[in-house]
């Protein structure tokens, strides 16, 4: 065979198309997905809780407009208990608490403002909220140093003499106190581990689905479609039990996690592996080898939509949609919960719903698509090398 004939063969052309498609999909999805940063952080939500009565309201009135310049959602009507629940469930990203006796303590020279931050979260959220905490504290001290506190003190009927005494004492007197819930190590490897585990399970499941799809087609004439499908499903489950073990062991080698968390992560990864296998097998059975043109973009999109690099609130809308019907987002949130704390139950339900739906769709595909192959007829060729 001449080189020119080989280069223009069906298989080589298919490989070129796949390579070009992968380049376009990866570059396009990643650049589009990350274009929302850093401006997109204005979609994050901050609760401001005033515990200092009327005096605190005066401080709050100064604080909220400043925050609203950077964040579209600054909420002031929630109590601390409710705010903590929302922070733990990642509905909000920070709580700023004006504590009881905040203004009174300023009069004695020092006062603390509390910033509640959930560390079981993406680096985008953690770094942004820590920067906000520092900025708010600096702005308070700057306002005091510039004499802007005088207007607040006047509104509280503080005499001029007392105002002068207070402002003289208040140079850098507001102290930042970060209160972390669901505490996690701050290094990038720990923060990204929940996402990396999900990506590993999904990618390996996708490869397994492609391989077993070809085996399924080859075995239909031999065993019939339902037995071939049964074998594929059993094999997928066996792989789902074995493969995640090595990923979890590697995780344990590289970062410090307890044996209890390691076992929990392993069981969760089995769940994820099975779900991702069923999900990706749908496109392989529907479109054969060409299913990779759907599976690859979905996998790439989920590295963003999975919620490991940016929270749902600031994702571009297409990625938000993808996060609702694909398995990587709920699994990443569950991994965060197992390793560092946070919500898991509702995400487990979502992952289970994806598994059940995918399994039913697979049964429907096998039932409708290969009825003519039941009695030993040769399946449609999936060969692209001809």
Describe the structure.
There is one protein chain. The chain is built from 15 helices and five strands. By secondary structure, the protein is an alpha/beta fold. The chain has two domains: 39-181, abc type-2 transporter like fold (3-Layer(aba) Sandwich), CATH 3.40.1710; 187-373, no CATH class. The chain has a five-stranded mixed β-sheet with strand order 2-1-3-4-5, with helices on both faces. Helix 11 (259-287) packs parallel to helix 15 (345-369). The longest helix has 36 residues, at 188-223.
Largest sheet: 5 strands, mixed
Mean pLDDT, all residues: 87
Classification by helices and strands: alpha/beta
Helix content: 55-70%
Task: Briefly say what this structure is.
With 386 residues, the protein is an alpha/beta fold. It has 2 domains: 39-181, abc type-2 transporter like fold (3-Layer(aba) Sandwich), CATH 3.40.1710; 187-373, no CATH class. It contains 15 helices and 5 strands.
């Amino acid at each position: 065979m001449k080189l020119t004939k080989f280069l223009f063969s069906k298989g080589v052309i298919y490989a070129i198309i796949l390579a070009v498609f992968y380049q376009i999909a990866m570059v396009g999805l990643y650049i589009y997905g990350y274009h929302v940063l850093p401006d997109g952080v204005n979609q994050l939500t901050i609760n401001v809780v005033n515990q200092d009565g009327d005096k605190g309201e005066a401080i709050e009135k100064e604080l909220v407009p400043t925050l609203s310049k950077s964040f579209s959602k600054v909420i002031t009507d929630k109590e601390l208990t409710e705010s903590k629940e929302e922070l733990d469930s990642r509905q909000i990203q920070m709580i700023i608490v004006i504590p009881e006796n905040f203004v009174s303590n300023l009069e004695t020279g020092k006062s603390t403002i509390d910033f509640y931050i959930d560390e079981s979260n993406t680096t985008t959220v953690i770094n942004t909220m820590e920067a906000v905490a520092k900025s708010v504290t600096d702005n308070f001290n700057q306002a005091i140093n510039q004499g802007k506190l005088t207007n607040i003190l006047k509104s509280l009927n503080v005499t001029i003499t007392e105002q002068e005494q207070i402002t003289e004492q208040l140079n850098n007197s507001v102290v930042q106190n970060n209160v972390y819930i669901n505490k996690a190590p701050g290094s990038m490897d720990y923060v990204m581990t929940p996402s990396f585990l999900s990506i590993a399970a999904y990618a390996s499941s996708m490869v397994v689905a492609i391989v077993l799809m070809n085996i399924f087609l080859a075995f239909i004439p031999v065993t019939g479609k339902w037995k071939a499908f049964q074998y594929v499903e059993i094999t997928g489950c066996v792989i789902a039990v074995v493969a995640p073990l090595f990923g979890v062991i590697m995780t344990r080698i590289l970062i410090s996690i307890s044996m209890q968390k390691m076992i929990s992560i392993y069981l969760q990864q089995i769940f994820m592996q099975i779900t991702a296998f069923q999900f990706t097998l749908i496109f392989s059975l529907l479109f054969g080898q060409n299913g990779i043109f759907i599976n690859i973009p979905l996998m790439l999109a989920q590295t963003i939509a999975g919620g490991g690099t940016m929270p749902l609130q600031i994702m571009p809308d297409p990625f938000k949609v993808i996060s609702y019907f694909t398995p990587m987002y709920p699994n990443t949130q569950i991994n965060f919960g197992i390793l560092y704390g946070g919500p898991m139950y509702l995400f487990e339900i979502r992952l289970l719903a994806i598994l059940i739906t995918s399994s039913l769709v697979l049964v429907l595909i096998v039932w409708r698509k290969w009825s003519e192959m039941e009695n030993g007829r040769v399946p449609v060729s999936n060969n692209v090398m001809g």
